[in-house]
Design goal:
This protein is of the alpha+beta class. 34% of the residues lie in helices and 27% in strands. It catalyses: L-homoserine + ATP = O-phospho-L-homoserine + ADP + H(+).
């Protein structure tokens, strides 16, 4: 018996939706899993070269945490795991969140836990600390979440737009991006910041992408601070905003994402690529199905 686990990537924060709004994108982490004598993680994509190949791999560490949570650590039998990924590491596209979801799914199938989606979401959010990356990768679509020890999420359908990722050739670690954020806001600043976030949610619900773009430019929570870590931010933001509904920093960065009407995306992105050839450009859509797990029975040879 073997298993296939396929986890979509995610973008989070969406301007003022800091640590609370994210959506799944059609880039994937894929695991092919089968029983083995010892744990081994084999990278089958260039972006995964150099990852830990044994029990120090993040996916195993997450699976072990889940097993320990249910008192089944000793029952987590070794596997050979072939890993493929289309998700650039440390670029703000949820690569660590996909690993967390993959690790939970791996524990679930190996230990026959039969966890519900709510249980998986609670575990993932407890590990990550906020739901905006892990919830979309698990559930799919656009997810708005709240976490205070218990996670609450709601999904919103998204259609008619393409999320164009502009990926630079350098990494930005989340811990470095967190370090530049303020420790507190004044009461007045908090009211302004939350009102921008509230209107952002309403705009997503209505599919009013122009309004969402305006709110993204008014973000108080993270973009004004993190853009200092991204040399190209102001120039690229101004350039993309001429033709996009809105532009935002994906996750902790350094990837930026422009929201573009599906009808105009081909010609628009072709022009952008021509003007800024040093970046990787990906035209992405919302993945509405979330994580996918398939069990494969090995064929039995007949004598």
């Amino acid at each position: 018996m073997s298993w296939l686990i396929k986890v979509p990537s995610s973008t989070s924060n969406l301007g003022a939706g800091f640590d609370s709004i994210g959506l799944a994108l059609n880039l994937y982490l894929e695991l092919k899993v089968k029983r083995a004598e010892e744990w081994e993680f084999v990278p089958a994509s260039a972006c995964l070269e150099g990852i830990p190949r044994g029990k120090d791999n993040l996916i195993y560490e997450i699976a072990e945490k889940v097993a320990d949570l249910y008192g089944k650590k000793k029952e987590l039998s070794p596997c050979l795991v072939e890993m493929k990924s289309e998700i650039p590491l440390a670029r703000g596209l949820g690569s660590s969140a996909t690993a967390i979801i993959a690790g939970i799914e791996l524990a679930d199938i190996l230990l026959d836990l039969n966890l519900s989606k709510d249980e998986k979401l609670q575990i993932a959010t407890d590990i990550e600390g906020h739901p905006d990356n892990v919830a979309p990768s698990l559930l799919g679509g656009c997810v708005i979440g709240h976490y205070d020890g218990k996670v609450n999420c709601t999904q919103i359908p998204v259609k008619g737009v393409t999320f164009v990722a502009v990926i630079p050739n350098f990494e930005l670690k989340t811990k470095d991006a967190r370090a530049v954020l303020p420790n507190e806001f004044s009461y007045k600043e908090s009211v302004q910041a939350s009102s921008v976030a509230n209107v952002s949610v309403a705009a997503i619900c209505q599919g009013n992408w122009k309004l969402l773009g305006e709110m993204m430019n008014k973000d108080y929570f993270h973009q004004p601070y993190r853009k200092s870590l991204i040399p190209h931010y102001d120039e690229l933001h101004e350039y993309l905003s001429l033709q996009a509904y809105g532009v935002f920093l994906s996750g902790a960065g350094p990837t930026m994402i422009a929201i573009v009407d599906d009808k105009n995306v081909f010609n628009t992105v072709r022009q952008w690529k021509n003007d800024y050839p040093d970046y990787q450009w990906l035209s992405l859509h919302v993945e509405n199905s979330g994580v996918y797990v398939e069990t494969k029975q090995e064929a039995v040879k007949q004598d």
